TrEMBL record:
Molecular function terms, GO-annotated: coenzyme F420 binding; oxidoreductase activity
GO cellular component: plasma membrane
Membrane-crossing residue ranges in chain numbering: none
Name of the protein described by the UniProt record: Deazaflavin-dependent oxidoreductase (Nitroreductase family)
Catalyzed reaction equations: oxidized coenzyme F420-(gamma-L-Glu)(n) + a quinol + H(+) = reduced coenzyme F420-(gamma-L-Glu)(n) + a quinone
Recorded superkingdom: Bacteria
Family: Belongs to the F420H(2)-dependent quinone reductase family.
Length: 136
């Protein structure tokens, strides 16, 4: 069974990632919880990730849509986020990768999810790479 959206979040949380961490085509997924920039409400999104040393890396692709995903807009306003990787729940500070960091990290992310290259090709906006640095 392939999990998506709310069900993915619920099953991941309930099973400490036993369901939902390992996803499609050999990818791994974390849960990112952001604070709504307008509502102040918590929103949790499952995202493909890779590690970079002690940090976690995600891509704000939105499937190549013209606009960034809501979770990315939220963290640009409220960079303190919640992260769950399997049973490990922690807070982190989210930031957009610099151009040099993106140049290094993008190929690693596209290697695990080649669709990222297709998404970038179909949109005029530069797709952000986000670095999640554990704070607690």
């Amino acid at each position: 069974m392939v999990l998506f959206g709310r069900e993915h979040v619920e099953r991941y949380q309930a099973s400490d990632g036993e369901e939902g961490h390992d996803w499609l085509k050999g990818t791994t997924v974390l849960l990112l919880t952001t604070t709504g920039r307008r509502t102040g409400k918590s929103r949790t999104t499952p995202l493909i990730y890779r590690t970079d040393g002690p940090d976690f890396v995600v891509v704000a692709s939105n499937g190549g849509a013209p606009d960034s995903p809501s979770w990315y807009k939220n963290l640009t306003t409220h960079p303190e986020v919640g992260v769950q990787v399997k049973g490990d729940r922690f807070t982190a500070r989210a930031r957009t990768a610099s151009e040099a960091e993106k140049e290094r990290l993008w190929p690693r992310m596209a290697a695990v999810w080649p669709d990222y290259d297709e998404y970038q090709a179909k949109t005029d906006r530069p797709i952000p790479v986000v670095i999640l640095q554990r704070t607690a």
